[in-house]
Design goal:
Blueprint lengths: L1 E3 H11 L4 E4 L6 H7 L6 E4 L3 H15 L3 E5 L3 H4 L2 H10 L3 E7 L15 H5 L5 E5 L5 H13 L5 E7 H5 L1 E3 L27 H11 L5 E6 L10 E2 L2 E5 L9 H11 L4 E7 H6 L4 H7 L3 E7 L13 H7 L3 E6 L4 H10 L4 E6 L1
Parallel strand pairs: 2-3, 2-4, 4-5, 5-7, 6-7, 9-11, 9-12, 12-13, 13-15, 14-15
Antiparallel strand pairs: 1-8, 10-11
Length: 350
């Protein structure tokens, strides 16, 4: 049976139970996105920046026990993923990142939005490959999913030319089954341990006392809030080795899609939060429920950084918000946040 390269790609997605894709559109992936539009079983999450797509896929992968999937266009769309790819690579998180590419006949001609993603990502991927023909689409994408999850897990990047997406070829499925990677099942959850900082300990105790099954996403560089992988039998997600400022908000969005029944709580510094604050647009558009605690410690900052009005920012995205100082009753404010049935931003000043 002959199919287009894009149709084969989607069949492989189905083989691997792909239900959520994070990405940003562009001319060199438009044929893929057009075909996906009619596949209701696969959610396409439109992020506000390609870096956010990779961080979201990273948060998703750490809770779903399968690779996060990203689709972005060529040129700047592709290069905007680099920070997220490097972070996932060093954290050994399985991702399949698909970048569009100009038609194969234009490669090497400095065509509009052509970039050599294979050379750029070689040091920060487990494997990368450029698909130039439709007849290699199915086998190559199948291999990508297997490599991404093989121990140790990591990032695979596929650079797919426009003609490989639209070209026709015989589809032969090798029926690759999803693997159970014991190395990636980071589900042994630890007992409650608290940081030395009394203020941070108080926040964590308020969160843990609620009794909810929670995912704690941390975005603080350097991370002096909590350095464990699990907290009070709840999963912790953070950019640990690479230390990306702005990892938290998109990662929390990805976590929400992987674990919709759990409370997703992001704890972020104000500078880190601003790095990817545009992803609040995804929360608004998709109606997500993410709890955000902003640790506003800029009063003690020697650079006297001027922050925006975070309550007004939250209001612009229809997110309920509140501002308190750490001398106020933290527990009352945190429980109000946790008990709300929608996204909530709690700014805590020190």
């Amino acid at each position: 049976m002959k199919l287009s390269g894009t149709e084969m790609l989607i069949k492989v997605f189905a083989n691997h139970n792909v239900d959520t894709i994070f990405g940003y559109p562009g001319a060199c992936v438009i044929s893929i996105l057009d075909k996906l539009f009619n596949h209701d079983e696969i959610k396409q999450i439109l992020v506000r920046h390609e870096q956010g797509a990779v961080h979201a896929a990273c948060g998703y992968a750490q809770l779903s026990n399968k690779p996060g999937v990203v689709i972005v266009t060529s040129g700047p769309g592709a290069t905007n993923t680099i920070t997220g790819v490097a972070d996932a690579f060093y954290s050994e998180v399985p991702l399949v990142v698909i970048t569009g590419q100009v038609s194969s006949g234009l490669i090497g001609t400095d065509a509009f939005q052509e970039v050599d993603m294979l050379s750029i990502t070689a040091p920060i991927t487990k494997w990368n490959y450029q698909i130039r023909n439709a007849d290699e689409m199915a086998s190559t994408v199948e291999r990508a999913f297997v490599i991404a999850m093989a121990d140790p897990p990591g990032v695979v990047l596929l650079d797919i030319t426009k003609d490989a997406q639209t070209g026709m070829a015989e589809y032969i499925s090798n029926n690759t089954q999803l693997y159970k990677n014991k190395g990636f099942e980071k589900s042994v959850l630890g007992e409650c341990q608290f940081p030395r900082n009394e203020f941070y300990t108080e926040i964590l105790k308020c969160l843990s006392e609620n009794g909810r099954e929670m995912v704690l996403v941390i975005d603080k560089v350097p991370n002096d809030f909590f350095d464990g992988d699990n907290f009070c039998f709840n999963k912790v997600i953070k950019s640990d080795i690479y230390g990306v400022s702005g990892f938290g908000l998109p990662a929390a969005i990805g976590a929400q899609y992987a674990a919709p029944g759990k409370t997703i709580c992001l704890v972020a510094g104000t500078l880190e939060f601003q790095a990817t604050a545009k992803e609040l647009g995804v929360i608004k558009q998709q109606g997500l429920d993410i709890k955000i605690i902003l640790l506003d410690e800029t009063a003690a900052d020697k650079y006297k950084i001027k922050n925006p009005d975070f309550l007004s920012l939250a209001n612009a995205y229809d997110i309920e918000s509140c501002k308190i100082s750490k001398s106020n009753d933290l527990n009352v404010a945190i429980q109000k946040m946790l008990n709300s049935n929608h996204s909530y931003l709690l700014q805590i000043t020190t």
